[in-house]
Amino acid sequence: MTMEELESDGAMAVPLATWRNDFSRIFQYYLDRSTPLRIQRWMGSVAVAMIYVFRIFYRRGFYVVSYCLGIYILNLLIGFMSPKVDPELQALDGPQLPTKGADEFKPFIRRLPEFKFWYSITKAFLVAFAMTFFSQLDIPVFWPILLFYWILLVTLTTKRQILHMIKYKYVPFDIGKQRYNGKKSG
């Protein structure tokens, strides 16, 4: 390459880097603004998921892509339902204070926070949707076998996670948990 070609490539890279930086900043701004809007975020994700499902139904293909998406979502769900500090690994560290029934209160902290869980699922559906436009990724497969194997995998993994939750007495959801509402006046 000549010096003029290198200079023109360098001149082209500066506006591209500037555009990428501006796009990244704007994207992060709207992502930060969406943080407290939990219901709206999840409704948008459900809409993206429905568009993906309609695309798969319409194309009657891309079952391997859908299977991989299902495995990835299962992995995210396990991270969402798991505590940040695993009680099995903590028990190996030896006895810790306090050790009786009046143990110190430890709130449930997820290994994968809700916002990152939402963001990862939404991004996964968008990537899977984009993959449906590449015919090379439409691998012919007998889809009932994939569906059966995925259901078996979900059942075994969920069973293991539920047994872990029962053994260490933690609930990863807010449903039915007691909340402090302040002092009650008599």
From TrEMBL:
This protein's UniProt keywords: Membrane, Transmembrane, Transmembrane helix
Compartments where found: Membrane
Membrane topology: Multi-pass membrane protein
One cellular-component annotation, GO: Golgi membrane
Residues that span the membrane, as ranges: 42-58, 64-82, 141-158
GO term, biological process aspect, one: protein retention in ER lumen
Homology family: Belongs to the RER1 family.
Reported function: Involved in the retrieval of endoplasmic reticulum membrane proteins from the early Golgi compartment.
Record protein name field: Protein RER1
Source species of the chain: Quillaja saponaria
